[in-house]
Amino acid sequence: MKIRNRTPLHRLPVFRVIRMQMLVTLVAAILAGLVFDLTAGYSVLLGGLIALLANVYFAYKAFRYFGARSTRAIIQSFWSGEMGKQILAAALFALVFVGVRPLEPLALFAGYLLVLGVGAGALLLKNNPKH
Predict the structure, then answer these.
(1) How far apart are CA 28 and CA 73, in angstroms?
(2) Is pLDDT larger for residue 61 or for residue 24?
(3) Is residue 75 in a domain?
(4) Helices and strands in the chain, H and E counts
């Protein structure tokens, strides 16, 4: 028996990571725009948004089920969430490279990797239920 998780995405613990990724995306884009130029700023923003949107999709898909009786559904939803995340990121990169001119590719990838780093670094965060 599959038990669906009725908790909204914004109430899941993973939402704290998504919020931090949003903040890092905005701050990095503003800093890149101020330090370098407008093209670098929106390139960092686009890279961060690609990673952020892909992670939101993964979180939505991966945390749909819970409970011991839902083990098979949990594994399937994690797998499909990760595959969907990779496909979405690739499609968004393709759209950006085709549709955005001028573009600073190094800044785009820097924004993407920065947001991925925030997600990886979240594993090191102290469990703080207050946020």
Answers:
(1) 37
(2) 24
(3) yes
(4) 4, 0
